[in-house]
Structure to design on (1130 residues):
């Protein structure tokens, strides 16, 4: 419940904040160049190295961060679900090959892979970044959905569907995927936060969103410049925003899990809980 | 058991092949090319001179041809080649960096498990009570922290202001062989890495324990009149450790990748640091070496986890 | 249970910190401890590719001529060099009695082999192209060498004779194609003042005095280079005295140490680099000289310098850095910040502001991408400031951060519009490869596609003329024209900074910037 409230608050702030606090996040103040200001009435969260308003950057940054979190999640969930469902439903050698591929993907240090792809494709555009994060984080979902589908396959209602002559595609679309949906929803909620963390990590490496577009990871990265000393507000603000957002979606995911009556252990063994470790350790 | 292990090792070879092929293809298809191998001299060279040098290194061939030579060199000579950046053997470079990373990952895994397992069990026993709620929330908070941010905060508090620990690096100037000094330098990095991985381990242990607590044999034990703690320690913990052990093997790749951030923030010269700088420098042989060694570690980690599984749970048989 | 765990953890922490390792270890007073921000890659000069590599091999290897005070060239392994009147044939006399650090004698064989290896394409020496005017190098007996040039080149002494000489008796048997992976780069043998004793990568490199050095004994017997990646830790090491010298420091560290460690001595000199925004002159709009001039007038470089660079930089006026006093010409066009003038220039040239605030003319919009190499906060900040200044003029700039490899590839192939970069590090005003129209990429380094017959003539005559006083007018004219025509948007010159303990005696009057700071290391003294 707390998670839901917090998540809604963050989403509202991202949507309407910039409409209420109408200060440009990219306007450079020449008078304050190289001289970050601590929080004040004019700049409630202070200013950065270029004299830009930190509150405004935080609000716009929320939009970017949530955009990355949601869209990359949708890509990963869609791809992972389809992949896992096909693999689980097909069984046999196809399943084997598909799952070995997942193993291979998981055996890469995942973050290392993202850096490699991003550095090598040299894409700092937002869309490309989202695509890369999404396409490199679907494996957990694929495993999860496959496990669900495999266990559902033997259940009575599938047998029944088969008995009345439903084709495999129909069984997959009408029965298997909808029934595997609950754990996917939980995984999706958690993935939003994870993607935000990954994006922050990429910014830290200088592979973030193009300047001067504000993003939380980018703000944190700016604050780490050796030139910015004695300006703790620049380090604390984006960090706390990231932590709060992650907390919101974690709690929300936890709440959903209980509400959807998902056995935690089942989810864990199926592989979703492995991903959070990955992200926690990497981002 | 030995036959099983051998089969698993053989079975992992195609996996390793796939991983290395994907890595090589990614690098081969990337733009920018290996210009960065020239470091600062790249600026002063003309494009024609650069082309010449790239051809000398054989980098103008298609990536799959290069991959073939790389594999051939590995299989026939057991060599990972020479780094483009400093012309040293890749294996020497990696071996020089491995200790720091292994120490970091090893110590932090120990610390994490030492705290997360008891906490997880206790939270499971007190399920739904205040302790459980608080620990769960704290775990989520820790989980949501960007690891580099946490590292910077810890440095600021414990190294800059309190001056309890050194700022960064793996040893003090001229103290490179002092074990105590080395440990002193590792405290903050290990605590940072442990904090962010604590959440997953703790929650894993907690859910595993909850499941075991509901199992018939635990109820039987209770019925036999054994005290709560005896039941928990003797039956629950033992069984609930299983999924945790599995996780140990699975989390290795992310730990290796993640060690980079710690190494960067704390200026530790480890493998993650080498890996990321090598990616940026387009030092293909080093990148390939690190990818291969990480993948081998992961496969080994999974294998060990399975074997440990068997050791803990005699019901599991391999055939 | 959790409390116990936390308590245990705290106990470990406290006991560890209580074992109080003294932060300053006791150390040998005769050893100079130097801080470096990064490690060298190799000490083989044929393949060295970063600053610490250049520095390290400079300690171990000698060249025929060395840089002396004021960047003059002084005899070193050579005792003299003379040429025929047409300056095409040079005879270099070598010093007698010089020994390699393993005791082997130094002879003309070493020089001839070194040049053979440098010029052989199979070696892959990155700068071989700079010496394409050297046709032949041959021995005239054991202590004399003759260089035959295809044409006169003013850089022969400062460029060619300044190259380090490698030992034939160690490397001569290695095929040129395998020199790259030869272990020599990790275990060098030289004729220089120091020998490498131990090298622990990314941690330390330790050099000791070379007992065979021809010049006589050095005063500091031992140099320990410590790699400290973290700038704060470097500052701390200088403050608490665990290190003696920190060279090539950034302006943040300089400001911090000046404030927090006033007991230290400092060197602060204009260095040899110019930073600027390179312009692809084939880009519509940007190829227009008046647009570039307007951009210069509209760029508040003073704000950049005082705000982002700690007032620790100088507005640039051309490619020749102010550090080269003799060659630098201050009497060229300056561009003081004047946005009104900038707008007037654009208006007069017919660039009209559109509805989106961007100027255009005949379908060409002033809307460009500025490339910057990722990794430096300062450069990205400078680029964003430029972006904001240009926006005020009606010019839209997208800042695109690229990793170094792609940045080099894109900016050197005319695949860009604007690129923020630096250039320099040499002691001669020659910029033939950068500005001459015959050197447009991929032939040379003319990455802007700049072409001006007068500048071409100046650069060619400058290279063909040996006497400095006669060369100078050519370079003055080149500076004047490029200041007006702006093949690049001139940014700023930076400083070289170093801090050291008072016990170290350096001739500060004669100190030179960048790597040349080390040119008289053999003369440094440590009193404590």
């Amino acid at each position: 419940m707390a998670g839901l409230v917090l998540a809604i608050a963050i989403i509202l702030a991202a949507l309407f904040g910039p409409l209420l606090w109408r200060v440009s996040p990219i306007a450079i103040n020449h008078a304050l160049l190289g001289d970050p200001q601590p929080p004040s009435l004019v700049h409630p969260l202070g200013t950065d190295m270029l004299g830009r308003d930190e509150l405004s950057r935080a609000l716009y940054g929320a939009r970017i961060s949530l955009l990355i979190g949601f869209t990359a999640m949708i890509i990963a969930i869609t791809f992972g679900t389809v992949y896992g469902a096909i693999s689980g439903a097909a069984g046999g050698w196809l399943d084997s090959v598909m799952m070995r591929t997942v193993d291979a993907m998981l055996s890469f240090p995942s973050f290392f892979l993202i850096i490699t792809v991003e550095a090598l494709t040299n894409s700092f555009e937002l869309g490309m970044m989202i695509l890369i994060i999404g396409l490199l984080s679907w494996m957990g979902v694929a495993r999860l959905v496959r496990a669900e589908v495999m266990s559902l396959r033997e259940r009575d209602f599938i047998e029944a569907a088969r008995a009345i002559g439903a084709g495999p595609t129909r069984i997959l679309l009408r029965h298997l995927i909808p029934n595997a949906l609950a754990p996917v929803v939980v995984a999706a909620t958690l993935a939003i936060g994870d993607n935000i963390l990954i994006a922050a990590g990429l910014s830290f490496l200088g592979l973030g969103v193009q300047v001067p577009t504000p993003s939380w990871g980018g703000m944190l990265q700016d604050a780490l410049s050796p030139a910015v000393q004695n300006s703790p507000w620049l380090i604390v603000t984006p960090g706390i925003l990231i932590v709060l957002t992650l907390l919101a979606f974690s709690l929300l995911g936890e709440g959903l899990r209980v509400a959807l009556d998902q056995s935690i252990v089942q989810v864990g063994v199926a592989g979703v809980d492995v991903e959070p470790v990955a992200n926690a350790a990497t981002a | 058991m030995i036959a099983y292990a051998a089969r698993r090792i053989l079975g992992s070879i195609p996996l390793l092949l796939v991983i290395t092929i994907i890595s090589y293809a990614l690098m081969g298809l990337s733009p920018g090319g290996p210009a960065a191998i020239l470091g600062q001299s790249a600026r002063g060279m003309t494009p024609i001179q650069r082309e010449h040098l790239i051809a000398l290194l054989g980098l103008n061939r298609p990536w799959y041809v290069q991959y073939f030579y790389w594999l051939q060199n590995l299989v026939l000579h057991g060599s990972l080649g020479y780094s483009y950046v400093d012309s040293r053997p890749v294996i020497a470079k990696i071996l020089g960096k491995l200790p720091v990373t292994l120490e970091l990952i090893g110590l932090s895994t120990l610390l994490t498990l030492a705290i997360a397992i008891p906490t997880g069990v206790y939270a499971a026993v007190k399920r739904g009570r205040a302790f459980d709620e608080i620990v769960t929330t704290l775990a989520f908070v820790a989980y949501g922290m960007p690891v580099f941010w946490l590292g910077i905060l810890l440095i600021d508090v414990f190294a800059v202001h309190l001056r309890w620990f050194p700022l960064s690096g793996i040893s003090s100037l001229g103290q490179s062989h002092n074990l105590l000094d080395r440990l002193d330098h590792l405290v903050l990095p290990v605590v940072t890495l442990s904090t962010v991985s604590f959440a997953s381990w703790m929650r894993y242990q907690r859910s595993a324990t909850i499941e075991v607590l509901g199992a018939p044999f635990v109820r039987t034990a209770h019925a036999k009149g054994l005290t709560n703690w005896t039941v928990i320690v003797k039956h629950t913990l033992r069984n609930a450790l299983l999924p945790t052990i599995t996780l140990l093997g699975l989390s290795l790749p992310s730990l290796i990748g993640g060690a980079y951030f710690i190494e960067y923030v704390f200026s530790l010269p480890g493998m993650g640091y080498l890996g990321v700088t090598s990616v940026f420098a387009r030092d293909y042989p080093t990148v390939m070496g690190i990818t291969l060694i990480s993948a081998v570690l992961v496969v080994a980690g999974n294998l060990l986890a399975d074997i440990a599984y068997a050791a803990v749970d005699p019901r599991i048989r391999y055939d | 249970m959790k409390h116990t765990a936390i308590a245990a953890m705290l106990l470990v922490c406290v006991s560890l910190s209580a074992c109080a390792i003294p932060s300053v270890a006791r150390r040998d007073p005769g050893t100079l401890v130097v801080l470096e921000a990064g490690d060298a890659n190799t000490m083989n000069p044929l393949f060295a590719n970063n600053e610490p590599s250049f520095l390290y091999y400079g300690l171990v290897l000698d060249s025929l001529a060395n840089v002396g005070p004021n960047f003059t060239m002084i005899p070193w392994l050579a005792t003299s060099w003379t040429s025929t009147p047409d300056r095409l044939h040079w005879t270099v006399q070598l010093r007698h009695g010089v020994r390699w650090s393993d005791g082997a004698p130094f002879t003309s064989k070493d020089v001839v082999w070194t040049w053979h290896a440098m010029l052989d394409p199979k070696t892959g020496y990155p700068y071989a192209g700079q010496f394409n005017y050297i046709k032949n190098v041959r021995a005239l007996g054991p202590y004399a060498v003759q260089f035959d040039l295809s044409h006169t080149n003013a850089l022969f002494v400062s460029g060619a004779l300044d190259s380090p000489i490698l030992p034939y008796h160690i490397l001569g048997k290695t095929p040129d194609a395998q020199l790259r992976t030869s272990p020599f780069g990790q275990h060098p043998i030289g004729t220089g003042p120091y020998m490498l004793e131990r090298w622990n990568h990314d941690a330390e490199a330790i050099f000791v005095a070379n007992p065979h050095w021809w010049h006589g004994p050095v005063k500091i017997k031992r140099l320990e280079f410590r790699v400290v990646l973290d700038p704060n830790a470097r500052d701390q090491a200088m403050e608490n005295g665990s290190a003696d010298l920190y060279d090539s420091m950034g302006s943040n560290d300089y400001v911090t140490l000046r404030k927090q460690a006033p007991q230290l001595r400092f060197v602060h000199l204009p260095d040899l680099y110019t930073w600027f925004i390179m312009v692809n002159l084939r880009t519509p709009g940007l190829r227009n000289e008046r647009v570039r001039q307007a951009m210069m007038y509209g760029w508040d470089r003073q704000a950049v310098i005082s705000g982002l660079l700690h007032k620790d930089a100088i507005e640039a006026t051309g490619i020749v850095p102010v550090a080269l006093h003799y060659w630098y010409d201050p009497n060229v066009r300056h561009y003081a910040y004047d946005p009104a003038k900038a707008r007037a220039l654009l208006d007069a040239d017919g660039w009209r502001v559109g509805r989106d605030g961007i100027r255009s003319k005949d379908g060409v919009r002033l809307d460009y991408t500025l490339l910057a190499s990722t990794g430096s906060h300062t450069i990205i900040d400078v680029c964003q400031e430029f972006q904001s200044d240009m926006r005020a003029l009606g010019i839209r700039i997208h800042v695109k951060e690229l990793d170094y490899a792609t940045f080099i590839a894109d900016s050197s192939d005319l695949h860009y519009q604007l690129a923020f970069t630096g250039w320099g590090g040499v002691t001669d005003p020659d910029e033939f490869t950068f500005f001459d129209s015959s050197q447009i990429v991929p032939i040379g380094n003319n990455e802007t596609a700049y072409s001006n017959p007068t500048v071409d003539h100046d650069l060619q005559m400058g290279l063909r003329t040996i006497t400095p006083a006669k060369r100078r007018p050519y370079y003055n004219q080149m500076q004047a024209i490029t200041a007006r025509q702006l093949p690049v948007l001139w940014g700023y010159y930076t400083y070289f900074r170093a801090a050291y303990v008072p016990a170290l005696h350096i001739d500060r009057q004669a100190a030179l910037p960048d790597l040349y700071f080390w040119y008289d290391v053999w003369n440094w003294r440590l009193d404590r």
